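Team,

Forwarding the record for the chain on the shared tracking sheet. I've put the sequence and predicted structure together so nobody has to dig through attachments.
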Amino acid sequence: NYALKYVTIPNSVTSISSYAFQSCSSLTNIAIPNSVTSIDERAFNSCYSLTNITIPNSVTSIGESVFHSCYSLTNITIPNSVNSIRDYAFNNCRSLTNIAIPSSVTSIGYYAFQSCTSLTNITIPDSVTSIGDRAFYFCYPLTNITIPNGVTSIGESVFYSCYSLTNITIPNSVTSIRASAFRICFSLKKVLIEGDTVKTLD
């Protein structure tokens, strides 16, 4: 529905199904009630005009590609109820400038923030143990990032083409750094690997 601009979801709704609002390219605003516990894959995929959204405290998982290619999305609030950010969740959200991941999240999926080309800052809590391949691929403006002490592996091409990244600290929980993890990071001047736990460096 290309003409749909506003949606208010009633309190009787507990789940937003896969593809529910995909390609509603004029949708600018949506109110999600606390009754919703799950937002399934691609629910808001390619909602090009959506500028901001608040996810209620009742939601536990952000599904695969939920906000993929929401070009106008500038900010989003992720509540403490969410425990995982699935693959491609915010892929190609070109206007997203910063995001705070709550301490309830334990995993960041593959390509989760790929091509977020306005993202300058992201906070990853100590609760995160897994960061998927290419999670921050082509995040050009990202200047610094702290990898939490619970992460054991830095996936393939995670920070590929993060042109503005100047320094990074690898905690002693990390045992492997996969291929092309920091490839084409032109501004990277310092990589500090704490301890001697890294066994695999592709």
